[in-house]
Amino acid sequence: MQEEPTRVRRTRPGPGRHGVRSVQQPLRDVSPAAPAAGRRYPFLSMLMSTVMEPPVPDYILESVRSLPPLPAAVQRLLTLARDAEADFGEVSRVIESDQTLTARTLRAANSAFYGVPRRVETVRQATVLLGSDTIVNLALGVSVLGLQERMDRQWPLDAEAFWRHSLAVATAARLLARALPFDDADSAFVAGLLHDIGKLVMLNHFGDVYGQVLLAAQDGTRPLPELEREILGVDHAAVGQALCLHWNLPAHLTRAVAEHHDDAAPGARAIPDLVRDANRLVKLAHLGTSGNPFVPVATDPLAPHRQIHPSALHRLLDALPAQVREAEAVFGRSADAAPPPEAPPQLVHLEVTQPAERALLALTLRAMGYEPRLLDEDPPDAEGPGDCTLAGLITDLPITPARAFAYQKYNVPMLDYATWRADQNLPETTALNVDQLRAWLQTELDAPPAAARAA
User: Fold this and answer.
1) Helix, strand or coil for residue 117?
2) What's the rounded Cα separation, in Å, for the pair 200 and 195?
3) How far apart are alpha carbons 20 and 25 in whole angstroms?
């Protein structure tokens, strides 16, 4: 199991413009006696100063150090993962030393999520059938979820929706890894599970002040990391990296946590890219909530170097909810109710000039159960291909009277995306609140009965 070098994660305070003023005043009292950087935790502070600019404040490092450590069995498994001479027997014995870990490992090995073809009776069998890498990642995921459950009592939003988001990002990262293909899909899963852990550390330290920042991002027009840096001087990705370093997690997991909002040009970063892409897809699919409903609109929802055909990406998006329910069963989270019966798909004509936003809209519509289709020059029919019906037109271009008449003939809604976007006060390069986008689409595409189209 080879480690890759940790890429530097740089974070800077925001520009100090119009922020959430109501949460700025209490910050003066958050850390009045915070020790000088490195005074209390010189090693961790020195390590952080080599990977961040500016370093995470020392009082945040103090909060990190006060959090529960990883269980001894998981720490031992991480050590074995770095040992090329470790064998299945050693890994199995470590897991068997922890009753909770043993039970979760056997439950996971026998679940549809891992797809083992026969009944697994022992940890040794699970280790041999799944592989030691998968077992170590499974143990780490189980332990991290257990620790996180104890840290979310102050979460001001829906705590269950937050964990569903984390599991969904983990599951999407795993599916993307398999679609590429990428060798280490299980590490991608754990990285997705960990990606927002820094939010809980910040909530643990700042309390209600951070809660107000989360609420402001949820309902506002600026992404959460911008507000965090402007108001608190550090963002959750940097704080999450500090926790990963404190836990001595593998470098590829630490990098994924640190870089899951990093839009730098893609390189050979693999797992960080997978987690960032998965995070965007999950937000478009509306699987849980993270307190940050924004995705960049200057780039495609999926990094352009990902060679995944749109049809394959649509299939992945279709499979994601069921896969997330399987993950919830494996990791002991309460699953959503069974999905409603499938209805015949409804076609939506899409005519948006900016490619990245067109891709974002197409994936959002797909996740909502619509069939997005780029608009051709032919007038619309009441019936789409197969048993599809036409649900609407989304365009950012002027609609000629002749075309408008063709859509009005079938009582098909025409959505003016340019006007909606202007109402969001967005500059050309920024992030888009996909929760607000989804709400707008749901309202405007509330199609009339089919009989009304048959005029």
Assistant:
1) coil
2) 11
3) 10
Chain segment 250-309, per-residue pLDDT in tens:
999 999 999 998 876 455 558 998 999 999 999 999 999 989 999 887 766 676 556 688
- What whole-number distance in Å separates Cα of residue 410 and Cα of residue 398? 19
Cis bond before residue 181 (omega within 30° of 0): yes
Q: Per-residue pLDDT tens for 433-443?
A: 999 999 999 99
| Secondary structure element (H or E) that encloses residue 392, with its range | strand 389-395
Of 388 and 311, which is predicted with more confidence? 311
| 139, pLDDT greater than 70 | yes
Enumerate the β-bridge partners of residue 431: 296
- Compare 345 and 2 and report the one with higher pLDDT: 345
Contact 197, 240 (CB under 8 A): yes
Amino acid 198 reads: G
Cβ neighbours of residue 419 under 8 Å, at least 6 residues apart? Answer: none
- Cα separation, 156 vs 218, whole angstroms: 11
Q: Parallel, antiparallel, or unpaired for β 346-351 and 389-395? A: parallel
Q: Minimal CA–CA distance to 394: which of 430, 342, 426, 352?
A: 352
Question: What number of residues does the chain have?
Answer: 455
| Residues 375, 377: Cα–Cα separation, whole Å | 7
Long-range contacts of residues 310-317, Cβ cutoff 8 Å, at least 24 apart: 310/362, 312/179, 313/179, 313/363, 314/363, 314/366, 316/172, 316/175, 316/176, 316/179, 316/281, 317/281, 317/284, 317/285, 317/363, 317/366, 317/367
pLDDT band at 119 (very low <50, low <70, confident <90, very high): very high
Q: Which domains does the chain have, with CATH numbers?
A: 346-453 (3.40.50)
